[in-house]
Amino acid sequence: MIARAESWHAALHRLQREGVPHVLATQVTSAGSTPREPGARMVITADAVFDTLGGGTFEWQTIEAARRRLEANEPGMSLEAFSLGGRSGQCCGGFVNVLLEVFPGSPVTLALFGAGHVGREIVRLAEPLGWQILWHDSRDDAFPAWANEIPRLECRRTTDPAAAVAELPAGSHALVMTHDHAEDRALVDALLCRGDTASLGLIGSQSKWASFRSRLRDAGHDESALARVRCPIGMAASPNQSERRGGDKTPYAIALASVAELLPLTAEAERPDQRGLDPAELRATFKRATPGT
Questions:
Q1: Closest CA to 173 of 238, 129, 220, 239
Q2: In this model, does residue 224 exceed pLDDT 80?
Q3: Distance CA 43, CA 7 (A)
Q4: Which CATH architecture is the domain 109-266 placed in?
């Protein structure tokens, strides 16, 4: 475990901007002698902690509980109760309740292949959406200098399409728009072979997709797999393809349509564990957990 000098509030702000999974641990009640007072906080990631709840065995148990939740990808809140003379084996003799709030990181990963004009506009448009963006290109110096200033963006120079695809998180949304048709086809082939992308879009014309489709079918991909590929991208708002051919073909317009097409694909149904604990349930939990009530 790495303890960092960064304060919990600075770490919380940074990790949420970067989309890194983390847990905010807050001491919410205490009875008797305890290392810290209610309101003390710390932030926990898979490999680091920021600030402290006072140290000792109970803090280690808090960290372990938080990391179990992170590993299980369990967003939401839970309450941990510690008797400092019982469960934690400390000599303070007090009692502490710690609220764990689990933030699983960016809910959407966009794997973008190609740092050309359209790719750059897509990155700019997607930045405020909170997505984790993995930006790939095989060329030297393909990425603009401003890319270093964008949170949740990772630039990867990759010359092996299969290796680049193998490194993607499961459930990524992929957009393929490199400078080279052979590279595009190799990427689509690898993405279809992997088979666990949440969505797959390819830039290009109907004739490009017809050529790709034939070769991908010859490579062993069946019709159900090929049907998962959207090409041309950015057509959801304008299904009449003849309109698209006569419409705005500037990089910004194509990027805007492509991001708009992704939005309903990345939408998640509301989950109860993301709405927080019901106040009545929280009060009942505290009553059961606090001695002497």
A1: 129
A2: yes
A3: 9
A4: 3-Layer(aba) Sandwich (3.40)
On whether the CB atoms of residues 46 and 67 are closer than 8 A, the answer is yes
Please, which residues have CB within 8 angstroms of residue 245's CB and are 6 or more apart in sequence?
A: none
Taking the C-alpha atoms of residue 110 and residue 88, their distance in angstroms, rounded to an integer, is 42
Q: Encode pLDDT of 73-86 as tens digits.
A: 878 888 888 776 65
**Domain coordinates of the chain in residue numbers?**
2-105, 109-266
Cβ-count burial 112-134 (b if 16+ within 10 Å, e if not): bbbbeebbbbbbbbbeebebbbb
Residue with token string 């990867």: 156
**What pTM was computed for the model?**
0.68
The pair of three-digit structure tokens given for residue 226, joined into one six-digit string: 């090929």
Q: Looking at the DSSP assignment, which residues form a beta bridge with residue 156?
A: 136
Task: Name residue 185's amino acid.
Answer: R
* Residues 211, 55: Cα–Cα separation, whole Å: 63
| 211-216-221-227 Cα dihedral, nearest 10 degrees | -40
What phi and psi, each to the nearest 5 degrees, are found at residue 78? Answer: -150, 160
Query: Rounded distance, CA 168 to CA 149, Å?
Result: 22
Question: Where would I find the H helices in 157-205?
Answer: 161-166, 181-194
72, 64 contact by CB (below 8 A):
no
Residue 70 host element (H or E) = helix 56-71
